[in-house]
UniProtKB/TrEMBL annotation:
<protein>
    <submittedName>
        <fullName>Uncharacterized protein</fullName>
    </submittedName>
</protein>
<keyword id="KW-0812">Transmembrane</keyword>
<keyword id="KW-1133">Transmembrane helix</keyword>
<feature type="transmembrane region" description="Helical">
    <location>
        <begin position="245"/>
        <end position="266"/>
    </location>
</feature>
<feature type="signal peptide">
    <location>
        <begin position="1"/>
        <end position="23"/>
    </location>
</feature>
<feature type="transmembrane region" description="Helical">
    <location>
        <begin position="108"/>
        <end position="126"/>
    </location>
</feature>
<keyword id="KW-0472">Membrane</keyword>
<dbReference type="GO" id="GO:0016765">
    <property type="term" value="F:transferase activity, transferring alkyl or aryl (other than methyl) groups"/>
</dbReference>
<dbReference type="GO" id="GO:0016020">
    <property type="term" value="C:membrane"/>
</dbReference>
<dbReference type="Pfam" id="PF01040">
    <property type="entry name" value="UbiA"/>
</dbReference>
<feature type="transmembrane region" description="Helical">
    <location>
        <begin position="278"/>
        <end position="294"/>
    </location>
</feature>
<dbReference type="InterPro" id="IPR050475">
    <property type="entry name" value="Prenyltransferase_related"/>
</dbReference>
<feature type="transmembrane region" description="Helical">
    <location>
        <begin position="220"/>
        <end position="239"/>
    </location>
</feature>
<dbReference type="InterPro" id="IPR000537">
    <property type="entry name" value="UbiA_prenyltransferase"/>
</dbReference>
<keyword id="KW-0732">Signal</keyword>
<feature type="transmembrane region" description="Helical">
    <location>
        <begin position="182"/>
        <end position="199"/>
    </location>
</feature>
């Protein structure tokens, strides 16, 4: 029996397919759902969300995001040119290290597709899952992620919108719907992704060049590409708090991180710095996802009272 069929080896292999994307995709998209549900009537029809109930759905939201990410990564990393790219950019992944073959990965994908669909039908987000499967096909099999950076960012922007919609639906629970403002917020975040997602390409230029991808830094040049990220990041850092009608705290959180990202992009120009800037961008996205929660004054007041009681209790 092949080693990867042992349960421990199999689970580690699944994790390695998604490991490099977990902190930058699963965690922020899960945060979108949880924070949005806690924001109450701003984004959902739940006028008085209970924090304990919302947080109890955290494992379900994580499962939805991770399972769909797994489908994407299995399809993406088993593409012939992806193996070449990963050998340069991410040599620890299962295919470059020989933990699993391309044929075995494609068979695993065939098995995982119906399983993930059933799981997300149980979770209540099967519509988003089906649409994500279609986007995966467009991005990977039709090479929408390789041929044109505008098409690539558009697919990713729509994909993030579906991840966020599914996460919010699961987090707010059955019996509650996303409000009109909630859908507008999801669309606004998709626009943020569409105009800034090329930040991940800055650190992967060597592998993308070997794969023949037409990414922003390879087509427009490294310096120009950095400006195409820095300017939108600073712009969205103002627009997003403005859209939600937030005060100084909202602008301070996103604007401060936005300035750091722009500074790093323009002044720290090497692979190691770009890898860290990508993580800063992911944290900035998570901060944007937190903004609706700042509108829930009762929740913020309760957090302050809880913190104050804990501080007094420790004296």
């Amino acid at each position: 029996m092949k080693k990867w069929f042992s349960p421990a080896h199999f689970l580690v292999t699944l994790w390695l397919f998604t490991e490099s994307d977990f902190a930058t995709f699963v965690i922020p998209d899960t945060a979108f759902g949880i924070f949005g549900a806690l924001a109450g009537p701003l984004l959902t029809t739940n006028s008085s969300p209970h924090p304990g109930i919302i947080l109890s759905r955290l494992p379900q939201v994580l499962l939805f995001n991770w399972a769909n990410l797994l489908i994407f990564d299995l399809a993406n990393q088993s593409h012939p040119t992806a193996v070449i790219e990963d050998a340069l950019n991410k040599p620890w992944r299962p295919l470059p290290t020989g933990r699993i073959t391309v044929t075995e990965t494609r068979r695993l994908l065939l098995f995982a597709l119906p399983v993930v669909l059933v799981v997300n039908w149980i979770l209540g987000a099967w519509e988003e899952t089906i649409l994500l499967f279609a986007l995966n096909w467009m991005y990977n099999d039709l090479e929408g992620g390789d041929q044109d950076f505008v098409t690539r960012n558009l697919i990713l922007g729509v994909g993030f919108g579906l991840y966020n919609r599914g996460a919010l639906r699961i987090a707010c629970g059955g019996g509650h719907e996303i409000t009109r403002l909630g859908y507008q917020w999801i669309a606004l975040i998709s626009c943020v992704i569409f105009t800034t997602m090329q930040v991940q390409d800055m650190k992967d230029q060597e592998g993308d060049r070997a794969r023949g991808r037409r990414t922003v830094p390879l087509i427009l040049g490294d310096w120009t590409a950095r400006w195409t990220i820095a300017v939108p990041v600073l712009t969205w850092s103002i627009i997003c708090p403005l859209f939600l009608g937030l005060g100084f705290l909202g602008y301070l959180a996103t604007g401060g991180f936005g300035i750091v990202i722009a500074w790093r992009l323009l002044l720290l120009q090497n692979v190691q710095a770009d890898q860290k800037t990508w993580k800063f961008w992911s944290a900035w996205i998570a901060l944007l996802y937190l903004l609706p929660l700042l509108k829930n004054k009762s929740f913020i007041d309760e957090c302050i009272r809880f913190t104050w009681r804990r501080a007094l209790g420790s004296i």
